[in-house]
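Predict the holo structure. Ligand: iron/sulfur cluster.
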Amino acid sequence: MAYVITDACQKDFLCATECTTTAIHPLSDEAGADTVTQLFINPDECIDCGNCISICPSNAIFPIDELPADKAGFAEKNAAHFQ
Ligand code: SF4
């Protein structure tokens, strides 16, 4: 399982700063930070700790098995960012 960021993301970069691993990109100083519409979680690096959910002020992050039906496509969008 992994956690997934959806289009409610406001790009405040709080989750990327607080991530237990380095699963969330881009960081604020990485290439692409200005142009992406949201941040993404690498499913191969996420350890399901939940820190990002608790810090996100826009409720943009979900465990993959709790994604709302209208956000289901974001699991693939998060993974695709790292391919
Ligand atoms: S659940 Fe934990 S490891 Fe996974 S993206 Fe969130 S903070 Fe990072």
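Strands lie at 3-5, 24-25, 40-41, 61-63. Residues 3, 19-21, 23-24, 41, 46-52 surround iron/sulfur cluster (CB under 6 Å).
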